[in-house]
Design brief:
Blueprint (H helix, E strand, L loop, with lengths): L5 E5 L3 H13 L3 E5 L2 H9 L7 E5 L1 E2 L2 E2 H9 L7 E5 L4 H10 L3 E4 L4 H12 L15 H14 L5 E4 L6 H11 L7 E5 L6 H12 L3 E5 L6 H12 L5 E6 L2 H7 L5 H7 L2 E4 L7 H15 L9 E2 L1 H9 L5 H15 L4 E2 L1 H4 L14 H19 L4 H8 L3 H10 L3
Parallel strand pairs: 1-2, 1-3, 3-6, 6-7, 8-11, 8-12, 9-10, 10-11, 13-14
Antiparallel strand pairs: 4-5
Length: 406
C-alpha cells in the first residue's frame, strides 16, 4: 500500500518515532524523519523529492504541529497532513482540519488503524510517473496525476496553462505513459504555422496511430478549424492532445473559435497553475536547471544561497518556467561570487529608482530575515545553535522567526 511512497515523519519522541519509522519502512515507504519544527519547515518546503504525506505530532520541542502547518501554508500548498494527538489536543486537531489538514488520529492507536488512515490519505496520489513532472508541490503533482489518468484512456485532452508552464511536457508525459508510446508524437505549434491547414494535413498523414499535439489552438484560423473538425469526424486512428491559454475562452466569446470544436477537443482537461501560485516549484525548477547548467561554467559555483531561494519564492514569475531558465542563464554568465545570490538573478533590483525604496521598517525586517536564514542555513536548521551565533536568546529568535514568517 505504501511501497514507493515518501512519508515525512515529524515526531520527537524516540520510542514513538522509531516504532512508526520502522513500520512505515516495512510497508515499503521511504521515511524522512524529522524531530524539530524548524528542520521540518525547510525540509518540507524544498524536499529532495516529492513528499506524499506528513505524519506530524501536534506537540514538538520548538513549536507545534499547528505552527508548522500554518507556516507552510503561507508560502505553499503542503502535502496531506495526518496529525497525531493526545486526548487533550482533539480541539486543536479539529481546528487544523478546518484549516485544511487531511486527518488526525488520537493516542493510543492501533498500527493497523494508523496505516489505514495514512493509506486512505495518500491513495489519490498513487499514479505511476507522477513524481516530479512539473515540480514538487501538491498542485504540480495533481497535474502529473491527471496526466497519468489521461494516459490510461484514449479521449482527446486539452491542457490549459499560461506560456512557459510546461504544457508540452504534460503532452509528452501522456504519450510516454500511454500504449501509443512506440508510435510518433508530432508537435504542431499553431502560433508559428504559416499555413495551418497545410501543416495540419501533413501532420495527420505522418502521425499514424500516434499522438498529434496541437499547441496554441486558439490561433487556428476558421478554415483550419473546419478542416480539423472534419478530420476528427472521420475517426482517425491518431489521438489528439491540444493546448491553450486563457485566450481560448475569449476567442469563443467573440465567436472566433467553434464551440463544438472546443467541446470535441476538451472532454478531458488538465489545468496547469502558474508558477506564481507554486513558489516551491520555482525553487525546484531553478535547482534542477542549476544542477544541469552550472557544471558548464569554466568555474562552477558552489551552489544556490538561501537568500536566492527566498527571492525566487517571493518573485511572481510572469514568464513562468521560461523566465526561470532565462534568469538563471544570465546569472550564471555574470555571477562573480562563489554562490548564486538574489542580485545575480534579479540585477534590476540593484538599480531600482529611489521612489521604489522600501521603508526603514521593511528594510530592517528584510535584513533580519536574511541574517536569520543565513544562521539557520549554517546550523542546518538548529534554532538553539543559530541563536548562539546571532547572540540572542532562543526565545527572542523564535519570536522574530514567527514575526517574519520563518
Amino acid at each position: 500500500m505504501l511501497k514507493g511512497r515518501r512519508i515525512a515523519l515529524v515526531e520527537d519522541d524516540e520510542i514513538m518515532g522509531a516504532s512508526l519509522e520502522q513500520r512505515l519502512r516495512l510497508e515499503g515507504a521511504e521515511v524522512l524523519r524529522l524531530k524539530l519544527m524548524q528542520r521540518a519547515i525547510g525540509a518540507l518546503r524544498t524536499p529532495r523529492a516529492p513528499i506524499d504525506a506528513v505524519v506530524c505530532d501536534i506537540r514538538l520541542p520548538d513549536g507545534s504541529g499547528e505552527d508548522l502547518f500554518h507556516t507552510l501554508c503561507r508560502t505553499m500548498t503542503p502535502p496531506p497532513f495526518l496529525f497525531i494527538t493526545g486526548q487533550g489536543g482533539i480541539d486543536q486537531a479539529v481546528r487544523l482540519l478546518h484549516a485544511g489538514a487531511a486527518d488526525y488520529i488520537t493516542k493510543p492507536f492501533e498500527m493497523a488503524a494508523f496505516l489505514d488512515r495514512l493509506g486512505h490519505l495518500i491513495r489519490p496520489a498513487l499514479h505511476e510517473g507522477s513524481d516530479d513532472l512539473l515540480g514538487i508541490s501538491p498542485a504540480a503533482r495533481r497535474v502529473a496525476a491527471l496526466a497519468a489518468q489521461a494516459a490510461a484512456s484514449d479521449r482527446p485532452v486539452l491542457v490549459r496553462g499560461a506560456p512557459g508552464t510546461g504544457k508540452a511536457l504534460v503532452a509528452r508525459q501522456i504519450h510516454r505513459l500511454s500504449d501509443r508510446s512506440a508510435a510518433p508524437f508530432l508537435h504542431v505549434n499553431l502560433a508559428r504555422a504559416a499555413d495551418p491547414v497545410a501543416e495540419l494535413g501533413q501532420a495527420a498523414r505522418e502521425v499514424g496511430e500516434g499522438i498529434l499535439f496541437l499547441n496554441s489552438i486558439s490561433r487556428l484560423t476558421a478554415p483550419a478549424q473546419d478542416w480539423l473538425m472534419h478530420w476528427l469526424d472521420s475517426a482517425p486512428p491518431a489521438r489528439v492532445i491540444s493546448a491553450c491559454g486563457a485566450d481560448l475562452d475569449e476567442a469563443m466569446r467573440r465567436a472566433r473559435f467553434r464551440a463544438d470544436l472546443a467541446s470535441r477537443l476538451g472532454p478531458h482537461e488538465i489545468p496547469i497553475p502558474p508558477l506564481k501560485d507554486r513558489p516551491e516549484d520555482a525553487v525546484w525548477l531553478l535547482t534542477r536547471l542549476f544542477e544541469t547548467l552550472n557544471p558548464r561554467r569554466q568555474t562552477p559555483l558552489r551552489g544556490l544561497s538561501a537568500l536566492a531561494q527566498e527571492a525566487v519564492r517571493a518573485h511572481d514569475w510572469p514568464g513562468n518556467g521560461r523566465e526561470v531558465r532565462a534568469r538563471l542563464v544570465q546569472a550564471l554568465a555574470t555571477a562573480q561570487g562563489e554562490m548564486l545570490y538574489p542580485g545575480d538573478l534579479f540585477p534590476e533590483r540593484q538599480t531600482a529608482p529611489a521612489d521604489d525604496l522600501p521603508s526603514l521598517a521593511e528594510a530592517r525586517d528584510a535584513a533580519e530575515r536574511a541574517h536569520i536564514l543565513a544562521a539557520l542555513e549554517r546550523t542546518a536548521g538548529q534554532v538553539t545553535e543559530a541563536a548562539r551565533l546571532l547572540k540572542v536568546s532562543r526565545t527572542t529568535l523564535w519570536e522574530k522567526m514567527q514575526k517574519l514568517g520563518l
